[in-house]
# Entry
Amino acid sequence: MALINDLRKGSRFALSRVLSQVENNTPAGLQALDELFPFTGKAHKIGITGPPGSGKSTLVNALTKQLRLHDREPRVAVIAVDPTSPFSGGAILGDRVRMLELQNDRGIFIRSMASRGALGGLSSQTEALSQVFDAAGFDFVLIETVGAGQSEVDIVNLAHTTIVVDVPGLGDDIQSIKAGILEIADILVVNKADRPGADQSRRYLKAMIEMGFRPLASSAGKHRMAPALQKDETETIGEQEALWLPPVLKTIASQFEGIEQLVTEILNHQHFLKSTGRWKQKETWTLREIVRKRIAGTLERDFFQQLPAEVFEAQMEALIARKVSPTTAVKNLLTYNQKSSKPQLSE
Amino acid sequence: MTEKKIRVLIAKPGLDGHDRGAKVVARALRDDGMEVIYTGLRQTPEMISEAALQEDVDVIGLSILSGAHNALVPQVIRKVRENGQTDVIIFVGGIIPEADIQGLLDKGVFRIYGPGTDTHLVSKEIREAVKAVSQVD
# Structure
């Protein structure tokens, strides 16, 4: 495929077209993913999630600029996901408004994505898009989720490093020990830290994290593993006991404050993942999820392709009339699938 | 497979600071099921063509109230075409004097929508135009 060759040679036009094909799940898109797969597995994927208005896009803007300042001038891709309207199917993708400064740097590529009905904070094709960027040679892929509440945690299946962005004044210490979004953080950021209550928010978050790491935190002074890893010989720490204690940082993304430290922690985390075998573990997990989802998707598609619409509708009518239960309807339809030569349904 | 979504970039080139019209159109296209990338105020033609390239949009809507349309619009069109996006549809909204309209249309603008245009008309015409282009490839 000519487009793939151009993409590998650095054509931004080809990259953009392939991203669309993949996002739309077209046959060409699937073929592109197949051809690109051997070149994936190098990019560091970083998820940025948090409630609406917490400053995710502004943080991504600052973070991308800071990453570009690194000696090696890494290439940075950004995937920014915004929600699709459940009523019209349309979407306003407005994350670029906060990233205008990045527009003139050819080492950066920003792609907006609508969630298209997926509920976990991403779109069903976000992972696939990150693979395309990976194969196109981007060193970092930043993935900004839709404004997330408490359970939009899909990002964790995809990102090597997950940054959860919080802002002062969003809740007390009970909020911070609930399961969900805070739990998935590798790095916690209290953004808009010039607002009142920033230190209190940071304390709550720190307390929550240390609660989960009690035994480790007791070895006072040394309880941040990543800096320790960098100083000591990494081989001495086995996979079992190596733990990452998520740092809690204060930032003011709009003024570029705290961003350098955030990048340091991201690189610390990358080093931690690579030196403990967690990087590979995460990759395995992500790939396993991809295959599971593909199987589910393929089976569903094949099933509905061979099922005549009228058979499905007949079961729906029986269901609405309360003649069959949903369980029975499913059983009937699945049985139909298995004996597809037989046109009659069992009552 | 889901039907292909129409992707639209709404941008404001130049220096005027009023984006209400741009937002009304963005909202109307969203309500018609399109994916609208909104980039905000004070964009240069380079920024707009770069965003259009990265987002692989089908349509670009330019809102201009400053009077600089004869300078800015042809620059955007040229840069977008140079990037290889030959089939992108470009429309203009805002305050465009009657005398300038034909000149812009001749340079490749699809339509010019002035104040008071029915937004349903905008989304209908855009949808038809995108359909016509994609049937060609």
The two ends of chain A are 51 Å apart (CA to CA). The longest strand of chain A covers residues 76-82.
